[in-house]
């Protein structure tokens, strides 16, 4: 068995120790946490849980600089045009680069959404961990049966990439790109195959205008394509998902900027996870999600970086700092949102998110300022940058070394 240690250990489950490390077995799981130095010791660093990114778009790596369009519907159209110019191999190489960049920032598990096989292939070939939610699109209700049949075939093809560390999930993209019948069919498919499901929801004013009033730029897009608009009286985006039986314990709701008290209660009733992306939300002008209310309601909330086309470079601890400022979080609370809480939101908390015996040995080592004391350790972690990451391990295997 291997022992890896550092000057400090931060377990993410309430334990802070000096000169401590983890002992791991040949399968890459944690056997024990021990108060001693190992043969592989990192001086001047803290050994901490690998970060868990609750929302990525790895296949969009390389689209940096596409965040200049302030109008969200136009930005979406621009992104569709850019994606149309990429091949499956292009998406794969982009996802590889995105995953390697994630490792370099201390991220060990991702919950990724994408329309290509690239993220799943990248996770498999680089030995990553997480969920690759495959997107399905189709705003015309008459095409729902054909859309779901083709989509089910793609799931079968891609299931060969799954492993104990990699799951294939279902992602009906968003209310402005997926019809009600297709949402219902995708959710039923996810339940039948026991797959997790992820949806972009309650993100923009244009989305709310479409569902609640059948107005706005997304409604105009639908009219131009002769697509039937949602029936009125309107419902909030989350109420609309509930109507189509999408919400549930396996559902990850991404962004959720526009949620009132009834919506928050709805999320709690269905035990949904939430992926909170504060920097992306702000950058696109969507506003601030009610993070404090989410936490007060006891929702499972994890942090995500969104895509490089929205925020570059992706930095999960920068998201944690933004969340801390938004909701008045302490450093341990903010770090938890980027580790164990994120793992809870995507349903992987029994496997990752903290350093505990039996979990996967997913961890990162972060350089600390000289003289760091225990009381300041969480603050030092939260204030660190990607340049402070020394090494990252997934399942006990080194995937990054500075």
3D structure, described in words:
- This protein is α/β, with parallel strands linked by helices.
- It has helices spanning 72-84, 88-104, 118-126, 144-158, 180-192, 205-213, 217-224, 237-243, 261-269, 278-283, 291-296, 316-327, 331-337, 340-345, 377-382; strands spanning 2-10, 16-24, 30-34, 40-49, 51-56, 107-114, 130-136, 166-172, 197-201, 251-255, 273-276, 300-303, 363-367, 389-394, 397-401.
- The strands form three sheets. It has a seven-stranded mixed sheet with strand order 3-2-1-4-13-14-15.
- The longest helix is centred in the first third of the chain and has 17 residues, at 88-104.
- It is globular and about 65 Å long.
Helix and strand content put the structural class at alpha/beta
Number of strand segments? 15
Query: Strand sequence of the main sheet, in spatial order?
Result: 3-2-1-4-13-14-15
In the predicted model, the low-confidence regions spanning at least 5 consecutive residues are none
Number of helices: 15
């Amino acid at each position: 068995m291997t022992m890896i240690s550092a000057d400090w250990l931060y377990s993410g489950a309430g334990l802070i120790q000096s000169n401590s490390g983890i002992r791991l077995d040949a399968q890459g799981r944690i056997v024990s946490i021990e108060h001693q130095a190992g043969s592989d010791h990192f001086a001047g660093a803290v050994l901490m849980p690998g970060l868990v990114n609750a929302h990525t778009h790895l296949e969009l790596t390389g689209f940096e600089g596409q965040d200049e369009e302030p109008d969200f519907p136009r930005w979406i159209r621009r992104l569709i045009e850019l994606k149309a110019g990429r091949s499956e191999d292009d998406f794969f190489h982009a996802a590889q680069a995105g995953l390697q960049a994630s490792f370099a920032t201390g991220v060990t598990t991702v919950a990724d959404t994408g329309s290509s096989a690239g993220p799943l292939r990248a996770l498999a070939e680089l030995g990553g961990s997480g969920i690759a939610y495959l997107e399905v699109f189709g705003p015309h209700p008459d095409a729902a049966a054909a859309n779901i049949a083709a989509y089910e075939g793609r799931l079968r093809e891609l299931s060969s990439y799954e492993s104990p560390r990699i799951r294939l999930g279902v992602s009906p993209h968003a209310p402005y790109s997926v019809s009600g019948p297709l949402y219902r069919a995708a959710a039923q498919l996810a339940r039948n195959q026991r797959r997790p499901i992820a949806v972009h929801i309650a993100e923009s004013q244009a989305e709310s205008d479409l569902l609640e009033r059948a107005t706005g730029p997304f409604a105009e897009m639908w009219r131009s394509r002769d697509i039937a608009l949602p029936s009125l009286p309107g419902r909030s985006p989350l109420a609309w998902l509930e109507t189509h039986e999408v919400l549930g314990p396996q559902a990850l709701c991404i962004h959720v900027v526009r949620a009132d008290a009834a919506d928050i209660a709805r999320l709690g009733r269905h035990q949904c996870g939430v992926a909170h992306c504060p920097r992306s939300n702000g950058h696109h002008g969507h506003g601030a999600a009610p993070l404090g209310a989410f936490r007060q309601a006891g929702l499972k909330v994890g942090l995500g970086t969104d895509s490089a086309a929205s925020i570059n470079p992706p930095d999960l601890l920068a998201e944690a700092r933004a969340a801390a400022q938004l909701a008045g979080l302490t450093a341990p609370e903010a770090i938890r949102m980027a580790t164990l809480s994120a793992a809870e939101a995507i349903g992987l908390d029994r496997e990752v998110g903290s350093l505990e015996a039996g979990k996967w040995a997913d961890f990162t080592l972060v350089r600390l300022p000289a003289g760091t004391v225990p009381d300041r350790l969480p603050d030092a972690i939260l204030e660190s940058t990607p340049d402070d990451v020394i090494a990252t391990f997934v399942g006990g295997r080194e995937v990054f070394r500075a």
